[in-house]
């Protein structure tokens, strides 16, 4: 059997002519259950691995998932029909090790965690998220790295092919320095993926009108950033967050830029349904303790929102009556 040249994860590679996808995975020492294969831009079903053959000039992408506070059970929040007890969505990227991530997840007890879609490492080595029992969580794959609507849609389809869920966090970056989202491309990708049956959770800026348009396009949740991704600058525009909460009829989940638990509590206090936190936990001096603190903060913030804050007045009012005061 002669060799042919294919493009595998963006690099030229010689493989035996006519080799099946399953045989190729065995040659690469890759477990079929842990990978999604895109063959000439067509996502292959796992049932097809044995029969689909590789030919000269084929393009192959092998991808997998990498790392991108519960309330009482009587107050869950629902996204796309899925009830979640915890209002802290936990990121999985930037952690020093999988062991640290595992301890953070144990401390925070989230129901939903984010995962990114990346090319499978063909050179061996420890895989990201190895040792993390993903079955314990609702997975939120994201399209991080996409800079066009087409790219985001492609990543979403690959995520669905992995068989975990129809959830997808649409993230289309429009500026490399600020990592702020591209409004038009985000809206375009959201519309397309909604028509394909995805449960779209759309990452956006704190633009009120853009949030409304994403809601109108069918997003199951709108995810405005508190500040640019990874900065931990904290909540920069409380007014716009409150306006977004009042304008859209789906969960508003504050995503990106939070720095400390008090900011997460503030988001919940004004009506946000949840927060997504990654860097502030992963880069803390004690990540598991910070994860626990964020989990506690969202519980406090939600409890305060349900309790209803006291009236804001401009005139001081004594908390103790003056009647009966000895003079």
Tell the overall outline: elongated
Strand content: 15-25%
β-strand number: 15
CATH superfamily membership of the largest domain, which one? Aldolase class I
What is the typical, i.e. mean, pLDDT? 86
CATH architecture of the largest domain: Alpha-Beta Barrel
List the total number of helices: 9
Which tags fit this structure?
327 residues, alpha/beta, Ubiquitin-like (UB roll), three-stranded parallel sheet, 2 domains, seven-stranded mixed sheet, 9 helices, 30% helix, TIM Barrel, single chain
Concise description?
The chain is of the alpha/beta class and 327 residues long. Helix content is 30%, strand content 21%. Strands 1, 2, 3, 4, 5, 9 and 10 form a 7-stranded mixed sheet that branches. A 3-stranded parallel sheet has the order 8-15-14. Strands 11-12-13 form a 3-stranded parallel sheet.
């Amino acid at each position: 059997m002669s060799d042919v040249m294919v493009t595998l994860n963006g690099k030229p590679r010689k493989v035996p002519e006519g080799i099946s996808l399953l045989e190729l995975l065995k040659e690469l020492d890759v477990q079929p259950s842990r990978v999604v294969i895109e063959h000439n831009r067509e996502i292959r079903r796992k049932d097809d691995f044995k029969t689909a053959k590789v030919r000269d000039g084929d393009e192959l992408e092998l991808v997998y998932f990498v790392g991108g506070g519960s309330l009482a059970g009587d107050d869950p929040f629902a996204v796309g029909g899925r009830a979640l007890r915890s209002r802290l969505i936990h990121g999985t990227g930037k952690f020093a090790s999988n062991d640290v991530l595992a301890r953070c997840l144990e401390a925070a007890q989230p129901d939903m965690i984010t995962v990114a879609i990346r090319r499978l490492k063909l050179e061996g080595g420890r895989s990201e998220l190895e040792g993390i029992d993903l079955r314990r969580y609702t997975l939120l794959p994201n399209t991080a790295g996409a800079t066009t609507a087409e790219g985001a849609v492609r990543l979403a389809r690959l995520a669905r092919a992995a068989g975990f869920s129809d959830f997808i966090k649409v993230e289309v970056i429009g500026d490399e320095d600020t990592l702020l989202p591209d409004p038009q491309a985000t809206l375009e990708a959201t519309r397309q993926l909604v028509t394909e049956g995805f449960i779209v959770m759309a990452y956006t800026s704190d633009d009120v009108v853009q949030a409304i348009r994403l809601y109108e396009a069918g997003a199951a949740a709108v995810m405005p950033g508190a500040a640019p991704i990874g900065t931990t600058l904290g909540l920069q525009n409380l007014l716009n967050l409150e306006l977004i909460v009042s304008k859209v009829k789906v969960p508003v989940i504050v995503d990106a830029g939070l720095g400390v638990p008090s900011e997460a509590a503030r988001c919940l206090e004004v009506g946000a349904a949840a927060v997504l936190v990654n860097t502030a936990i992963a880069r803390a001096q004690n990540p598991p303790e910070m994860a626990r603190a964020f989990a506690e903060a969202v519980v406090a913030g939600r409890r305060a929102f349900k309790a209803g804050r006291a009236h804001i007045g401009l005139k001081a009012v004594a908390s103790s009556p003056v009647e009966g005061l000895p003079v």
